[in-house]
Amino acid sequence: MVRRTWIAVLLLAALAGCGDGGGSPQASRTPAATATPAVASVLVFFQRQGAGGATLDTFTVRRDGSGRLEKRYGGAGGRFKDLELRRGVLPRLRAALARLPRSGSTLTQGSPPPGGAQYLLRYRGRTFTARDGGVVAAARPAVRILDGFIDGIGVRSVTRESATNDP
Predict the structure, then answer these.
(1) Do 61 and 146 touch, CB atoms closer than 8 A?
(2) Prediction pTM value
(3) Tens of pLDDT along 68-104?
(4) Contact status, residue 119 vs residue 136, Cβ threshold 8 Å
(5) Which phi and psi (to 5°) does residue 65 adopt?
(6) CB 54 within 8 A of CB 35
(7) What kind of fold does domain 41-163 have according to CATH?
(8) Distance in angstroms (rounded) separating the CA atoms of residues 67 and 45
(9) What are the DSSP calls for 39-87, one per residue?
């Protein structure tokens, strides 16, 4: 009798371990993306560091004309906004990005004055750096437009907003 009980327990344990890893079958078939809305792919990522103190501001422009602003304040948290760009601004940005240099990774020329902002730009698999006051002429329109987005220039509306310390 004891032997049959042990065999039954072992069989049940073995059966419990079979399947898709032990989770609920329904949960394993449900895609994780259904919980969050689809996000358009990234066109360009832009980062500005050091403008106006210990800041690290980033702006991601998506191909559908939406964007994501992340403002971080030197370890004291940050604010995050999902935004819609103004109509007509995306084609101007695309044209400016098309003029970026085809070679090299720096968009800086000469010796810019100290204390200015530093920029990082990622576009089409390439990463560029630049310093305020020394941005090459071919890159100035793109940097000006992207830098403006961080300051709210060319932004139509805020669609969602949050902060590090939000409950």
Answers:
(1) yes
(2) 0.72
(3) 999 887 667 788 999 999 999 999 999 999 999 988 8
(4) no
(5) 90, 10
(6) no
(7) Mago nashi protein (3.30.1560)
(8) 10
(9) -PPEEEEEEEESTTSSEEEEEEEETTSEEEEEEEETTS-EEEEEEEEPT
